[in-house]
């Protein structure tokens, strides 16, 4: 029995470590939502908000109003508006997520990493250097590493990269939230498919126009009640930045333990990820516990 306990701790980490990772996952989710609101505000107003209160008091961005404070200390996240469209978001992190696996699995709920590396952070206070106009400014160096990169002059490509950055961040956040919800459920029988086990009950697209489509309570385009747990906040489901017949998010589950979310990428920088994501469709980027659930054309295969 003692050996089993030691093995369990070595595989999943101590309860204290798991708790710290859980808080950091929430911090990243909060900052991602805040970043989206700030950048949406900038696109609307052609200026940065002077503080987070200016964003949260605008009803257009009210979904971030409950996520501007640290989940553990309840202190405000730090926001600083810089020159032009540059800004910073800072938080105090309990762990270092710069060395975790690039492919989080269902059993690695709190070993989170983000595909575009935008939200990697060391332990301690850390500030993300962001840009509301392009979302392409690289993060500050971590552990002395260089962040030098080539930035194209093609405005169209910059715009596409910006939208792809949102897509990759959205899918990473949703993957984290679904994994946590699945692991923490007392019964996993219908966690991934609140609408039933039929195909039409376990699928959804961000493109759908129903008024309830962005609900995170399991009735939106994702059929998982992401409001049932508080570890990773998803107050409202994201939608694709373009949300067209080609560019939209697709969700599917078999009603058991298998689920998948797909998104189409459009930039020359990020498009190669659709081939290396481990899925069965080289036209879209795929995340989930089983990347064969959605076939070509966004049709459920089970």
**Percent in helix:** 25-40%
* Uncertain ranges: 4-12, 102-116, 135-153
Cα Rg: 19 Å
Q: Which structural class do you get from the secondary structure elements?
A: alpha+beta
Strand content: 5-15%
- Major sheet summary line: 4 strands, antiparallel
Structural domains: how many: 2
* Overall number of strands: 7
Average pLDDT reading: 78
- For the record, give the distance between the C-alpha atoms at the N and C termini, rounded to a whole number: 40 Å
Tally of helical segments? 5
- The neighbouring-strand order within the major sheet is 4-5-6-7
Order of secondary-structure elements: HHHEEEHEEEHE
Shape type: globular
Kindly describe this structure:
Strands 4-5-6-7 form a four-stranded antiparallel β-sheet. It has a three-stranded antiparallel β-sheet with strand order 1-2-3, covered by helices on one side. It is built from five helices and seven strands. Helix 2 packs antiparallel against helix 4. With 302 residues, the chain is of the alpha+beta class. It is globular. Helix content is 27%, strand content 12%. About 14% of the residues have low confidence. It has two domains: 150 residues, no CATH class; 142 residues, no CATH class.
Features:
4-stranded antiparallel β-sheet, alpha+beta, 302 residues, globular
Describe this structure in a few short sentences.
The chain is of the alpha+beta class and 302 residues long.
List the helices and strands and how they pair.
Elements: H1 2-12, H2 15-45, H3 52-56, E1 78-81, E2 86-93, E3 124-131, H4 155-184, E4 203-205, E5 250-253, E6 259-263, H5 273-276, E7 285-288
Antiparallel strand pairs: 1-2, 2-3, 4-5, 5-6, 6-7
Helix pairs in contact: 2-4
């Amino acid at each position: 029995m003692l050996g089993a306990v030691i093995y369990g701790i070595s595989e999943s980490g101590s309860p204290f470590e798991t708790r710290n990772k859980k808080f950091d996952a929430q911090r990243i989710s909060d900052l991602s939502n805040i970043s989206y609101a700030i950048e949406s505000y900038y696109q609307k107003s052609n200026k940065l908000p002077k503080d987070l209160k200016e964003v949260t008091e605008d009803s257009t961005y009210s979904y971030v109003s409950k996520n501007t404070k640290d989940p553990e200390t309840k202190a405000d996240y730090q926001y600083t508006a810089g020159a032009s469209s540059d800004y910073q978001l800072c938080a105090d992190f309990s762990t270092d997520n710069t060395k975790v696996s690039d492919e989080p699995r269902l059993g690695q709920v709190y070993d989170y990493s983000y595909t575009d590396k935008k939200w990697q952070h060391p332990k301690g206070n850390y500030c993300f250097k962001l840009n509301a106009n392009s979302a392409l400014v690289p993060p500050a160096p971590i552990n002395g590493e260089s962040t030098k990169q080539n930035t194209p002059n093609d405005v169209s490509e910059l715009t596409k990269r910006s939208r792809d950055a949102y897509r990759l961040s959205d899918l990473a956040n949703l993957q984290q939230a679904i994994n946590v919800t699945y692991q923490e459920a007392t019964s996993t029988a219908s966690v991934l498919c609140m609408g039933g086990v039929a195909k039409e009950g376990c699928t959804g697209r961000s493109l759908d126009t129903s008024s309830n489509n962005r609900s995170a309570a399991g009735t939106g385009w994702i059929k998982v009640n992401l409001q049932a747990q508080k570890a990773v906040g998803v107050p409202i489901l994201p939608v694709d930045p373009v949300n067209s017949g080609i560019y939209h998010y697709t969700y599917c589950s078999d009603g058991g333990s298998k689920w998948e979310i797909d998104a189409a990428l459009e930039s020359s920088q990020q498009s190669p990820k659709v081939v290396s994501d481990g899925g069965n469709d080289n036209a879209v980027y795929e995340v989930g516990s089983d990347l064969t659930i959605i076939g070509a054309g966004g049709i459920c295969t089970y």
